[in-house]
């Protein structure tokens, strides 16, 4: 496992990439409404990314045909935008995307509710987000990678949700996906020792039902096997010398 430790210069570049991505997510979240297509979101996202002088890192990545992954309801991740997928009141929409700034990547995901939804759905979205913040409490210099995984699992399991095990978080830097892989479920070993300068994309994917998933025939879209609603929350972080990590893809 080759885990890169970033220099101060590299972290500064990733900080800018993260700031742009955080702004993008804010703008997309504000724009979501009933009646718009998932393709509308993709077009908007790509236009904003390019307006920053950046490149969408998901576009054509391993053949993915869009800039923004737009996953609705039982779709966990990697939903392909479509003119024919029209959002309606109560839909749960996960937006996962990233961009490249001067050779450095950022990656983040947010889950939004279109209008109103049942309380159990609102809680799923809130708790998925909170599980990220619980996990990064363990992303400290001298700590261990799987302490993050174990904390996310510990927090989520009390609610009886399904943690997706087939997809995990990852390192990030000059590549979108770098070592190490970061599971969102408990591990028996403690894993890699963390040190300041490591940059990680931590991304809990949580289902209202079981954690099992299937891939659709498009070879991209991942759905919950039992058809239950799914939520996804992700940020790019950097491990600090002291204290909790800096979240690069979150506005102040």
Q: Whole-number radius of gyration? A: 17 Å
| The number of domains | 1
Under the CATH scheme, which architecture would be assigned? Alpha-Beta Complex
Strand order, biggest sheet?
Answer: 8-7-9-14-15
Number of strands: 15
Protein architecture, described:
The protein has 252 residues and is an alpha+beta fold. It has one domain (8-247): Creatinase/methionine aminopeptidase superfamily (Creatine Amidinohydrolase, Alpha-Beta Complex). Helices cover 27% and strands 24% of the residues. The chain contains four helices and 15 strands. The chain has helices spanning 8-31, 38-51, 119-136, 145-157; strands at residues 55-56, 69-72, 75-77, 92-101, 104-113, 162-163, 169-171, 178-182, 199-202, 205-207, 213-215, 222-224, 230-232, 235-238, 246-247. The strands form four sheets. It has a five-stranded antiparallel β-sheet. Strands 1, 2, 4 and 5 form a four-stranded antiparallel β-sheet that branches. Strands 3-12-11 form a three-stranded antiparallel β-sheet, with no helix packed on it. β11 (213-215) and β12 (222-224) form a beta hairpin. α1 packs antiparallel against α2 and α3 (119-136) packs antiparallel against α4 (145-157). The chain is globular and about 45 Å long. It starts with 7 loop residues before the first helix and ends in a 5-residue tail after the last strand. The mean pLDDT is 98.
């Amino acid at each position: 496992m080759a885990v890169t430790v970033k220099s101060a210069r590299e972290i500064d570049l990733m900080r800018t990439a993260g700031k742009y991505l955080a702004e993008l997510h804010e703008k997309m979240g504000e724009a979501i409404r009933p009646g718009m297509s998932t393709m509308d979101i993709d077009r908007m996202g790509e236009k904003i990314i390019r307006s920053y002088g950046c490149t969408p890192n998901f576009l054509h990545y391993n053949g993915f045909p869009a800039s923004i992954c737009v996953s609705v309801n039982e779709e966990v991740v990697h939903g392909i935008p479509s003119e024919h997928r029209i959002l309606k009141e109560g839909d749960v929409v996960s937006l996962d995307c990233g961009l490249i700034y001067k050779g450095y990547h950022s990656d983040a995901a947010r889950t939004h509710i279109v209008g109103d939804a049942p309380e159990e759905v609102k809680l799923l979205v809130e708790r998925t987000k909170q599980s990220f913040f619980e996990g990064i409490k363990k992303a400290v210099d001298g700590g261990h990678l799987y302490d993050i995984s174990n904390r996310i699992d510990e927090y989520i399991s009390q609610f009886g949700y399904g943690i997706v095990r087939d997809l995990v978080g990852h390192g990030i830097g000059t590549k979108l996906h770098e070592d190490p892989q970061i599971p969102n479920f408990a591990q028996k070993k403690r894993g890699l020792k963390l040190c300041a300068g490591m940059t990680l994309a931590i991304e809990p994917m949580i289902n209202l039902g079981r954690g099992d998933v299937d891939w659709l025939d498009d070879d991209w879209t991942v759905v919950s096997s039992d058809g239950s609603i799914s939520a996804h929350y992700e940020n790019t972080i950097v491990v600090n010398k002291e204290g909790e990590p800096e979240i690069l893809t979150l506005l102040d």
